[in-house]
């Protein structure tokens, strides 16, 4: 949701990573054994990174279950503060009506569960979005590096495919070979330019949402510290 404020750029980037980003005249480079091996390695990395959303789910559940469970087991002492904040809820909160029992307590509890669920959903969606995008870009840069490392060998293979009679007298100074070499190098350059454009677009997509997130977080921390300071002053 945080990156959908510019759907045009977001859809463009995801359309690009849905297919082969690099287009090479000598064939589909992603079918080479080395590139397939790279893709499998990144798939294993991605599985490890999926522990992050799982950790978020565990932490989100702990935020609700641990405080509520401890209050049920140990007791909750004072039910409300002087300001009317219900201390029995997982997250102490003020309501304009009693929420320590009955349907009101159930509704207040459900509202906090839904709030935490929505927050987890937003965070996990952002993490999965970034994980998918970053892993694909990482693969593309590895493929780009591979295309440059094998540029001479691929150019020679294309050259001999078109001019098999020149195999015995092959020389890198041959104008035809130089033309093929330049053509494949141009494909690598276009591949790199596409990746740079994708990175710039993604940077533009996340700049403002990240800034808003930092400002909101800083504001929340500031308000929390202010509340603690006021509570200490009242004591």
Structure description:
This is Olfactory receptor. Pfam families: 7tm_6. It is found in: Membrane. It is a single chain. With 235 residues, the chain is mostly helical. It has a domain at 33-149. The chain is built from six helices and two strands; from the N terminus they run αααββααα. It has helices at 7-18, 33-49, 51-74, 102-149, 151-162, 175-234; strands at 85-86, 93-94. Strands 1-2 form a two-stranded antiparallel ribbon. β1 (85-86) and β2 (93-94) form a beta hairpin. α2 (33-49) packs antiparallel against α4 (102-149) and α5 runs antiparallel to α6.
Largest sheet: 2 strands, antiparallel
Unreliable stretches: none
Q: Please report the total strand number as a whole number.
A: 2
| Strand and helix order | HHHEEHHH
* Beta-strand proportion: under 5%
> Could you say which overall geometry the principal axes of the C-alpha atoms support?
elongated
Mean pLDDT: 82
Q: Which strand order spans the largest sheet, edge to edge or round the barrel? A: 1-2
Tags for this model:
235 residues, mainly alpha, two-stranded antiparallel sheet, elongated, olfactory receptor activity, 7tm6_olfct_rcpt
Helices and strands in order:
Layout: H1 7-18, H2 33-49, H3 51-74, E1 85-86, E2 93-94, H4 102-149, H5 151-162, H6 175-234
Helix pairs in contact: 1-6, 2-4, 3-4, 4-6, 5-6
Summarize the structure.
The chain is mainly α and 235 residues long. The protein has helices spanning 7-18, 33-49, 51-74, 102-149, 151-162, 175-234; strands spanning 85-86, 93-94. It has a domain at 33-149.
């Amino acid at each position: 949701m945080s990156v959908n404020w510019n759907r045009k750029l977001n859809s463009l980037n995801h359309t690009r990573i849905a297919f082969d980003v690099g287009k090479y005249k000598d064939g589909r480079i992603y079918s080479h054994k080395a590139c397939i091996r790279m893709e499998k390695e990144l798939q294993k990395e991605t599985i490890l990174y999926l522990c992050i959303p799982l950790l978020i789910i565990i932490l989100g559940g702990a935020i609700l279950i641990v405080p509520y469970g401890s209050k049920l087991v140990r007791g909750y002492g004072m039910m409300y503060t002087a300001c009317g904040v219900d201390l029995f809820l997982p997250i102490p909160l003020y309501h304009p009506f009693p929420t320590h029992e009955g349907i009101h307590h159930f509704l207040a509890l459900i509202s906090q569960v839904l709030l935490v669920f929505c927050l987890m959903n937003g965070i996990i969606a952002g993490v999965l979005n970034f994980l998918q995008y970053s892993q694909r870009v990482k693969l593309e840069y590895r493929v780009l590096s591979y295309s440059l490392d094998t540029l001479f060998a691929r150019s020679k293979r294309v050259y001999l495919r078109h001019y098999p009679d020149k195999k015995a007298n092959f020389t890198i100074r041959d104008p035809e070979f130089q033309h093929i070499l330049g053509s494949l190098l141009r494909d690598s350059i276009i591949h790199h330019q596409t990746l740079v454009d994708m990175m710039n677009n993604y940077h533009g997509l996340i700049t403002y949402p990240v800034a808003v997130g930092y400002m909101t977080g800083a504001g929340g921390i500031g308000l929390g510290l202010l509340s603690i300071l006021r509570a200490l002053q009242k004591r």
